Amino acid sequence: MRIIVTGGAGFIGANVCTELAGSAGVDEVVVVDDLSTGRRANLAGVDATLVEGSILDQGLLDEVVPGAGAIIHLAARPSVPRSLEDPMASHDANATGTMTVLEAARRHGRPQVIVASSSSVYGANPELPKREDMVAMPVSPYAAGKLAAESYALAYHQSFGLPVLAFRFFNVFGPLQAADHDYAAVVPIFLAAALRGDPLPVHGDGGQTRDFTYVGTVVSVLTDAVRRSVTSPRPVNLAFGTRVSLLELIELIEGQLGKPVARLHTDPRPGDVRDSQADQSALRRLFPDIEAVSLEQGIRSTLEWFRSCS
Hints:
CATH class of the largest domain: Alpha Beta
Number of helices: 10
Number of domains: 2
CATH architecture of the largest domain: 3-Layer(aba) Sandwich
Distance between the termini: 37 Å
Shape: globular
Radius of gyration: 19 Å
Largest sheet: 7 strands, parallel
Order of helices and strands: EHEEHEHHEHEEHEEEHEEHEHH
CATH topology of the largest domain: Rossmann fold
Strand order of the largest sheet: 3-2-1-4-5-6-11
């Protein structure tokens, strides 16, 4: 099978490509990435072909999509704060970009399309755990764009019979996730600061909770979805129902380091939700054999990777 991974030079994408390359039944892995957030170095040593360009380039997609058996669509303009600074750019990449990928799939053989959505679509809905049938209440342009992306994917399934699977990712972390930019996620920010001996920047009181998911678990689900051609007419949470506060995350990091770390509390970030926790029922029905890597093991592995890079 020939598999295309959009955003394949990014953190999640490169981990997926590493797993897919050389796997049984996979003949070729093609990465489409404009390297705006992805890094060429993430694919070093990976048997994948990098096509540098934007998912908004229909001509480029018309060249790479024919013959594909599956498209794992991870390309996006990430970050809630970034979307608040430039809502239109976020929409173009996340909503219009997804539709461009779906259109290319519709034109060229209708391969399976796996779309990365986000837990941020639940937004202001306070109910926990988050179920896929709950009302989505996005509170940022990023969340709205992700809701549009998954909605387009599911509409293309209903309208054109395109085989799709829309996953709502919850706070994915792990090796290759960069900490050296303004929009970095909380786990790499915390780990990098802790290893430097700097205070960990905590937005708000640190009581906000997240359902952290190790990238290795996400990769296992995505690759299994491709191998078995799993589809769904509804979005699916890709997380396992854990609920950990940022202060608890810091305590876990302290346990791994064997020493306390300082904290620096700052103002809460606009657009952030207070609490997040996935209902995993739909995921378990579709992927009953997947075993999630624990948060403790995931932090340990990520910390080892950060140390290896220093």
